[in-house]
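User: Round two. Same drill as before: sequence, then structure, for each protein.

Assistant: Same drill it is. First protein:
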Amino acid sequence: MTPTPVTPAVVEPGVVLDADEAADLARLLDLVEDWLLHADDDARADLAGFLDGSGNGHLAAAGLATLLGHNATTLHRRLRKATTR
């Protein structure tokens, strides 16, 4: 059996934030998520209309709030891990 050559992993360039910038971003994500979850029906309808490119605006608006929450949580967790080492 001939061994398969190993190719080095391609590393995509990234963006590095310092801890204060990452904390600010996490707080902003939290704030926008909170606003979306507490917005009135008219605001949610406006957002759904804005996101309605494929006819699923209300679903996209709900998904956006969920995505913001997950990303904020992940960023907060990574910040805690990075700053408690």
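Second protein:
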Amino acid sequence: MRKSLKQPVPEKRSPTVESRVALKRHPLHPILVVYPIVCLSLLLPSDLVYQWTSDGFWARLSWWLNLIGLASGLFAAVFGMLDMFLIRVARRHVSVWNHFVAGVMLLALAALGVWLRAADPAAIWPWAVVQSSLCLLMVIVVGWLGGTLTFGHGIGVYDHASKDYGVDDAPGE
């Protein structure tokens, strides 16, 4: 049991924590999350354009955005959970658990949207619009928490200057 609320720091402190699920040192979870981010972020604009124009194309687009957002989100979540459970120091960060719980909530909202739109993608008022609004809000929250892990805690990034390059050969110089 921990005796303080301070974030744990490994004995040999490194500025970064390498991803355990990567392809040629490129972490897969950050690569894959762009698809659900795009799809679930475009749900609300698509629903609003449908409300404004009554063109069934936008309702069908919302259905597909929601379905692809859910499927790709579940796929990306698998790699995120693998990283979470395979990186010991990551599991100790509160930010990792916040990101995990918020991500589960986002996927539950996406599943709700698929269920709401399944019978008739055009019958969206008002619940699917509320769902797509909450999805957009949760995408922002989950993305913020994921960015905190990457940029604040160095989870899933690499210290290129000390591993691959000499001090004078660091990228960007």
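The two ends are 45 Å apart (CA to CA).

User: Perfect.
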